[in-house]
Amino acid sequence: MARAEAPARDVLAKNAAAYEAMAAEVQELCAAREDEAALEAIRRCAHFAWFHHPGRFADGTLENAALEIGRRLQRAVAGPLARELKATFDGASTGKRRVLHAISCALEIGGHTRLVMSWIALDRASEHSVLLTFQSEQPFRPDLEPRVREHGGGFLMLPIELSNLDAVAALRFAARRNFDLIVLHSHPDDPFPTAAFALPEGPPIALLDHADNVFWLGSSIADCVVHLRRLALEHGRARRFTGDAAVLPIPFDYRPPGFDRREARRRLGVPPERPLLVSVGTGYKYAPTERHDFLRAAARILEREPDAHLHVVGLESDELRGFRGEPHPRLHAEGVRDPTPYQRAADVYLEPFPFGSMTATLESVVCGAAPVLGFAPETHLLISCGDAVEDVLDRPADEDAYVERAVDLLRAPAQRAALVERLQPRILHQHQGAGWHAALAEIYASLDGKPHAPREIPVEGFRAAAVDRAVGRFWAAH
Known about the structure:
With 478 residues, the chain is an alpha/beta fold. The chain folds into 3 domains: 5-72 and 457-476, no CATH class; 79-252 and 437-447, Rossmann fold (3-Layer(aba) Sandwich); 261-431, Glycogen Phosphorylase B (Rossmann fold), CATH 3.40.50.2000. The chain is 45% helix and 12% strand. β2, α6 and β3 form a beta-alpha-beta unit. α1 runs parallel beside α3. The protein starts with a helix and ends with a helix.
């Protein structure tokens, strides 16, 4: 074993020991039939595994316990909530496929909620409803509910005061409101769906794999796991015990912003002639590791191009100051705001690294910015902008090549335009056009009338493969 790999293996082993101790508590609670506490313990253990990689990406120790709880659950939904669920989801038949999107938590920012909204907007042949199962007090996007209702569906958020078992019962009850398909947009640590759909009855379940780089729950109750890229499909089969699976490129409901590059720059106060770089991502995606340091690479680009500025949308100024090293004076942390004017104004888009931002990268290219992909990651699970781009655009081999590519694009308007012209049709075809609709139709066809068939999955032992070490290193640094 190489010397550099020893600390990574040690971190994984420490994580695994903590995970196994927490999983043992789950087993004890489940055996004692303390199901309310057991579900909470499953959530705690899975949450730990989400952010402290334990050498596993799925594990029957937790999943099978949640299945057992769900199989013996016979709790009825209380009258007022049952009436509200019926009133929300028992709509008159329209002849369309009825899809319920069960979402743990629809965050106000980030790509996940936009994914749901785009799916609903693009798939007009179906009727889509949304149930938020664990929103707590976090705000969700104000345009989510209007989008759902605009397309004929129901929208409901479960009360935050529900017990775990009551929430499981409510999710199960909602799913039986004559839906043809349930699509799970679950947080990796959410045990409610596994317990709610533990019985072989009700509509088929599609589990969306929107967090393919971390441990998650749900393989046991998925009649189809829907991945967002081919790499995740292969990884799911190897490490998550998935059964039937498919790839659906992330839906992308692109609507031209109504203003051009010149107007975008005017709104931002950017001179028309200034070389402009933009990147979009939440702060943790830029936090440096030993090998991958976005701010260091950005500073090198800006030193090579003395008139250029870089605006990073989603990165807060206090996060920037918390990273090692002094930030370059022409690097601007813009915080959380609408990235569209920046994407429209940009000459070059820098993909975040060491952790990518797929939706933002696709949006930026469609807005007209030439992309520079993050350089050779330790594992491609940590960074991706989708098969439509990566099938035709390679990643730089190292930081030097990354800097050179960015500088070359800044200095070559014709090359930038040619790259964007090459990528835009591919993105629109695969993420919102005929290619996306064909992929969705294939998934629907595979699930139409399919019996729901939950199953136990194997208990997974500790592994320290290269992908585990890379994922473990990333989360240990964050």
